[in-house]
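B., you asked whether I could sanity-check this one before it goes into the benchmark set. Here's the sequence:
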Amino acid sequence: MTIAIEGVTIPDSKMAREITALVQETESTLLFHHSSRVYYFAALAGKQRGLKFDAELLYAGAMFHDMGLTKKHSSANHRFEVDGANVARDFLKSHHISEQDVQTVWTAIALHTTPGIPEFMDPIIALLTNGVEMDVLGINYDGYSKEELKYIVEKHPRPAQFKEEIIQTFYDGIKHKPATTFGNVKADVLADKDPNFQRINFCDMIRNSKWSG
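And here's what the prediction gave me:
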């Protein structure tokens, strides 16, 4: 069922319906509902900030962003973000979306786990990261009303054990290619030179977020 909150709704288009069906067929129920919530949180953030964005492209980015965690689309040696971005790219190209728009969605998905960069880029790229950070880490949790949270979660349930389930889902999706987790080299430099440096732990951030469950 399509829901609308403060003027935000899933695009009513043939392509959006095909995206929904494809993701439902490919991803787990956990990831499908997570991706759906990401779209609403991202779109609401865009509305709050007065940003202009193509809702259909944002929906594509949100729904495909975790496709790289599925067995069907997980490569042997690419980052899972790139795998998901490639699925989105191929789908959008098959629907004759412009190369520029395809590249924007590809970049949004590829960078959605890389904080500190997307916020300075195209609204689609920035908002996708906003949506993911909200649903997984609770970032800007207080920026959404209780009514918005309740409505979204009723339509796209967030299970009581979501935090542990999403961590396990990440693990299952990347455990066969640990080399792809190499990331922010600056943390390695600080850890090497500063005995007091403490890395920010992603899993701890999930468990300590304001979201329950």
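One thing to flag: Residues 29-48 form the longest helix (20 residues). Otherwise nothing jumped out at me.
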